[in-house]
Amino acid sequence: MTIRTTQTVVCFSSPFRLPGFDMAQPAGEYRVDYDEELIDGISRLAWQRVGAFIHLPAIATQSSTQQMMPIHLSDLENALEKDQKQP
Predict the structure, then answer these.
(1) What is the C-alpha to C-alpha distance for residues 86 and 67, in angstroms, rounded to an integer?
(2) What are phi and psi of 11, to 5 degrees?
(3) Are 51 and 71 within 8 A, CB to CB?
(4) Which pairing describes strands 28-38 and 67-71: parallel, antiparallel, or unpaired?
(5) pLDDT tens string 24-41
């Protein structure tokens, strides 16, 4: 199975919390890596997301330490959707 990693930036306008995190993360832009598998058996190239990692802290935050935390795709999508609905 062929696997690739793509990177994107997500933006939270309010502090957010993801399952498995000890505390809420501040609003800001965060790098997210997506692991994707090539879907076999179709006539064109297609990729399916199978995992995600968020980079902490936020991009603009100055910190001497950085970490990459595994997250469930649905948890990230739910947190982003909730953030967009807040006034």
Answers:
(1) 27
(2) -125, 125
(3) no
(4) unpaired
(5) 999 999 999 999 999 887
The boundaries of the domain holding residue 37 are 3-85
Peptide bond preceding 57 in cis form (omega within 30 of 0): yes
Are 28 and 12 in contact by the 8 Å Cβ rule? The answer is yes
Distance from C-alpha of 78 to C-alpha of 27, rounded to nearest angstrom:
15
> What secondary structure does DSSP assign to 27-73, as a single string?
SEEEEEEEEEEEPPSSSS--EEEEEEEEEES-TT---S--EEEEE-H
pTM over 0.90: no
Q: How many domains does the chain have?
A: 1
Tell the burial category of 55 from Cβ atoms under 10 Å away from its Cβ (0-12, 13-18, 19+). Answer: middle
Rounded to whole angstroms, the Cα distance separating 83 from 8 reads 17
Residue 67: closest CA among 20, 15, 12: 20
Locate 33 and state its tokens: 């890596």
